[in-house]
Amino acid sequence: MNTGKTILLIEDDRIDVKIVQRVLQQLDISNDLIVFDNGEAALSWLESKNEELPGLILLDLQLPRFGGLELLDIIHRDEIMKLIPVVILTTSNHPDDRKESFKRDVSGYILKSIDYPIFVKALSGILRQIQKKDKSPI
Amino acid sequence: MNILYIEDDALDQAIFKRLIPSFPHILPEYAASFEHAIDLQKQKTFDLIISDYQIGAQTALNMLSVSDLPPVILLSGAPVNEHLPPSVIHCYEKPLRMELLEEILEHRLSYHSPSDLPTSKEKVLEIHFDMNYLLQVSEGSTEVQLELLELFEITTRQELDQIKKSFEQEDWKTLKFHLHKIRSNLHLVGLHQLVSLTRELENSCLSPMRRDFVLIFTPTFIEAVQNALQDIQPYIQVLKNQ
Question: Is the reported ipTM for this assembly greater than 0.90?
Fold first, then answer.
């Protein structure tokens, strides 16, 4: 039964969207998943939600036009939105991307395109941590 | 991972020796001249060479003319303006410090394995699918595999068009972006060599010193992905018939 908040996935790669859907399904996470393929649309949606903000944001760093870090900056500066846990899903293993993401208080940084069981385990571990820390209903 | 570190400056060598124990999986050998480095290279296989650009009166280009070298990272005290051969992955500015060494080693170690990086055009064109990842994601479901492979075909063609266009227009930033995007598609069907090459091209796009590598390998990369799109058809057909 789905009692949790919405999960927001910001990802322009359709294969990765499908893979995240599969992981959530395998982890028995049945929260509604809202997907945006660019940061601008995701931000407009977030700004329109006010009190019904998502319980979690899964964010790709490499987005067209409006990059993941730019979006993260805006979320981080907003008094309300900064309370939403953000997990980065990326193929970038570059130390700068990690450093810049954690500077903006992300809850996790997961490398996509690694072995699938490792990816599932990593996402599951981070979701558990967020649940414990924030008592989030995810 | 076996690394050959070439440096004639005693202080720089001491810094490297002080930093390297933080990477227990790295087994370094040292040379203070290119002659000694070439001798060592004949005796042992290295996964990576990290070398000072200038050793005495010689530059690393003397050593780089030797064939069968592993990937090379150059460290230089001044900007290097010469065109460097494809074996040079990157040229970093000295001094060597912990963050730089982490970047070098993470960059190298982020490959599926060092041997994954194809060394010639012919190797790039050898297509080997490894469907393990796809099988794991789909948990063996034919329906999910077909859905993912359909997405693979559509999005790979789209990204490939953008790669061709940006390469023709010499728009290196856009090329880098679309190479990054196509990488997870190639990973889905286990094209490990092409994944490594994509990462290498992506890392090289914005470096004028690596332009030769991008110019040589991007057309071959495009051809290889086109071949892969054809070669995957029998696999899709088998799934459809199930």
Answer: no
